[in-house]
Amino acid sequence: AASFLLAVFCLIVPAWGLSNPFCGYMEERDTVMLEIYCQNGVIDSLSFAAFGTPNGYCPNFSHNASCDDPTFMDYAKATCIGQTSCVLESHGGDPCPEVIKSIAVVAHCSQAPGGGQVSPLPKPSCAVNGLPCPVPRGWAEEATWNLTESTVIQPSSAGFFSPAHPWGLVSLDWSVANTLWFHNNVSNSTCEAISIEGCRRLKASGRARRCFIYHNMELALQWLESQRVVMQDPALADYFIQYTDGHGKKLGRIYNEPINFGSQFFWDFRSPAAREYFVESVLGTMADPAVDGTFTDDVNGVPEEHDEVQKNTGMSSIEIADLQYNTQLASQELIDALALHGKGNWQAFGYEDGTGPAPSRATCTLFMREYCQPSYQGRMMLMSMNNDPSVSNQTVAAFLVVRPPVAFLGWGWESGDEKWNNIFLLQVGKPLEVCREESPGVFVRQYTLGTASLDCNNWVAHLPFSSLY
Fold it and tell me: Could you say which DSSP state residue 112 is in?
C-alpha cells in the first residue's frame, strides 16, 4: 500500500492520512490550500474532490448540492493526476457566499516506479506520529480566549462529577458515576448513557464549557452499550482478537480479559468492518450536543497495558505489528470523522493519554521560540499546568503568550476540582497579536486587557490582568 503526507499552507491543520486511499480535508479561513503528497509513488486517481460544504467523512464523502463547485473535480484531476504532489486551493467562483467552505479529497497513490511497493509509515495516526491532527470543524471560530474556559481536567468519581469551580474541558473517565451505571449485572450496564448525562449536568450547571466521554482503541468494553451490542453477536466475532493456531488462523473463540464490570474483548481493527463500526458507534455517542468529544484510551493498541495477549492467543509478532498499525489507522479514521462533525478527541492533541509540555526555567527560551512560530496557531494545544507557586505564574504566562485558538491548560488522568487555582480567574480579553520575542529571551503578547510576558532570562512572568477572584 502507498503512503501519504499532507501539508497545509494556512492557519488550520488538516487530517494526516497514511492509508490508500487517503482522505484530505481542509476548512476555509481566508483561503483554502491543501497539498497531497504520495511518498515515492504518484497520484493515479481521485475518487472524490469537492469545494463547498461536502457531506460525510473519510472515505465516504458526498457532494452537497446546495454548496458545491461543479468544476472542482475536473480541476483537481488536471492538477494532481500523475504527480508526486499537488496543491489544491479554492477554485473558480464562490458556490455559497457567507458560508464557511471546505475542500475534501479522496486520493489514491500508485506503487513506486519500477514495481516496488511503497511501505506505509509505521504510525498512521496523528495521535502518535507527531504530525498535527485536524482541528474540529467550528472550534477555531468558536474559540474562547477566556482563561477559565481554557482549563482542563480528567476526574474520577463514584457518582456524577460535580465540581465547585467552572472548567473549560472536563473529560469523564469510564469509572465516573460507576455506582449509577453498574447494576451488578454485566449485561445491562449503562456507562455511555450515564456519561452523556454527566456531560448534560456539567453543561447545565455552567461547570464545563466542553465535555468528553470515554472509549478505548484497544478494548471493546461490555459496559459500553454501543460495544456490548456487537460483542454479543456471534456473527461479528471477527471484529475481535481470537485464539489462533499459532499460524494466523483464528480458532473461533474470542480472547477475553474480564474484570468485575464485564468482559474486555480486544478489537481486531485489521477488519475494515470493525473499524467502520467503531467509528460509527463512537459518532453515535456524540450526537447529544452536551458531548463535545471522546478520550480514546490505548491508541497504540495491543499490548498496551495487556502484556499477555500475544502469548495467550498465539499471535505472531508480525500479526501484532499489523494489528497495531490498523489500530492506529482506526484512530486516524475516527479523528477525521470526529473533526468533520465538529467533535474532538483527546488523543488528537498529540500527547496520547496525557497533557503536553510546559516550559521550565532550563527550557524556557527554546520552548517559547518553538511554540511562538506562527504555524502553531493552526494546531491544538493541551499544556500541562503546575500549581507550585514557584512556577504557576510562569506556566500561565507561557500559555497566554503562545496559545492557539483551540488550547487548554491543566491536567490529565485523575485530576479533579482539587486542582483549581484562582489564577484561572484572570481576565485577559482577546489577543491583538501573536507571540513575539520583544528582546532576546523575553516573549510577549498583547491582549485587549493587558500584555502577558515571560522573561526566560530571569524566569519572571508578568500578568497585569484583573481577576474575578
Answer: P
Place of cell 456519561: 195
Strands (E), 217-321: 219-221, 242-244, 250-254, 264-266, 293-297
Q: pLDDT (tens digit, 9 = 90+) per residue, 161-189?
A: 999 999 999 999 999 999 999 999 999 99
Longest Cα–Cα distance of the chain, Å, equals 68
Q: What is the pLDDT of residues 414-468, one digit of tens each?
A: 999 999 999 999 999 999 999 999 999 999 999 999 999 999 999 999 999 999 8
C-alpha cell at 138: 467550528
Distances (CA, A) of 465 to 116, 397, 424, 434: 61, 11, 11, 18
- 427 Cβ contact list (under 8 Å, min separation 6): 146, 147, 449, 465, 466, 467, 468
The answer to whether 162 touches 176, Cβ cutoff 8 Å, is no
User: How are strands ordered across the β-sheet holding 293-297?
Assistant: 344-345, 293-297, 208-216, 167-171, 151-154, 407-413, 381-384
Grid cell, residue 88, equals: 489544491
Q: What are phi and psi of 208, to 5 degrees?
A: -155, 135
Contacts of 358 (CB under 8 A, 6+ apart): 367, 383, 384, 385, 386, 395, 398, 399
Asked if the model's pLDDT at residue 29 lies above 60, the reply is no
- Cell reading at 115: 514495481
CA distance 41 to 117: 9
Selection from 389, 405, 419 nearest residue 146 by Cα: 405
pLDDT tens-digit series, residues 290-307: 999 999 999 999 999 999
